[in-house]
Amino acid sequence: MIIILLGAPGAGKGTQGKMLSEKYALPEISTGDILRAEVKDNTDLGKEAEEYMKKGELVPDAVIIGMMKNRMNCEDCKNGFILDGFPRTVEQADALENMLKNEGKNVDYVLNIAVPEEKIIRRISGRRSCPECKSVYNIYFNPPKEDAVCDHCGCSLVLRDDDNEETVKSRLSTYNQKTSPLVDYYRKSGTLIEIDGNGTPDKIFENIAGNLK
Ligand code: AP5
User: For the chain, what is the domain count?
Assistant: First the structure.
C-alpha cells in the first residue's frame, strides 16, 4: 500500500504518518526528517537544503527527487510506504508517478488533512521534537511526561529552527503557492480523500483508518 499525506505545515501529517506506520507496518518516509538529519550531519545535501529550509522555501525539485528515488529503492519499501512531505510540487508528483509506473506500482491513497490556519499556528508554536527518535510532542495538546524530555529515548526536546513566526508564515505561503495545486492533481486521479484535521489525533486516525480498505 502506498499512501501520500498532504496538508499544510503543522496539519498533523507526521503525527498521523507515525500512527499509520505502526498500524500497517509500513515505513513512514518524512522528507523533512531526512533533510534535518542531513543538516545535522553537515553533508553537502544538508548544507544546500538548509539555505531553503531556514527561509521556509522548498528545496529544489531535482535534489528532492534524487533523494526520494534512493529512499524508495530501499528494502523496507518493497511492500509499500507512507509519504509525509513528498510530493510537494506538480513536478515532484509527476516524477513519483513515473518512478512507480516503472515498477508497476501506483499510489493507493492521498490523504488531504485540512486544518484552519489559526489552529495550525498554535500547533506549530507548541510543537517540541526529539532530534534523536523523531517523536513529536506539543506543550498545549500532547506534552511529554517530564518537561522538555522525550518519553521514548530521554533526549532533550527542541523547537525546530523553522518553527519561528516569520518562517512559518513563509512556509504557509509556499504551501499555498506550490503544494496546494496537488489537491486537484490527485482529485483528478481519483485517489484523494479529504480528512477533517480538527479533533484529537486518535479521532482523526479513526476517520483515516475507516477510509482505507
Ligand atoms: P517538513 O518537516 O515536512 O514540514 P511541514 O510540511 O511544514 O510539516 P510539519 O512537519 O511542520 O507539520 P506536520 O503536518 O507533520 O504536523 P505534526 O504532525 O508535526 O518540511 C520542512 C522543510 O523541509 C520545508 O519547509 C522545506 O524547506 C523542506 N522540504 C521538505 N519536504 C520537501 C519537498 N518534498 N520538497 C522541497 N522541500 C521540502 O503536528 C504539528 C504539531 O501539532 C505537533 O506538535 C503535534 O503534536 C500537534 N498535533 C498534531 N495533530 C494534532 C491534533 N489533532 N490536535 C492537536 N495537536 C496536534
Answer: 1
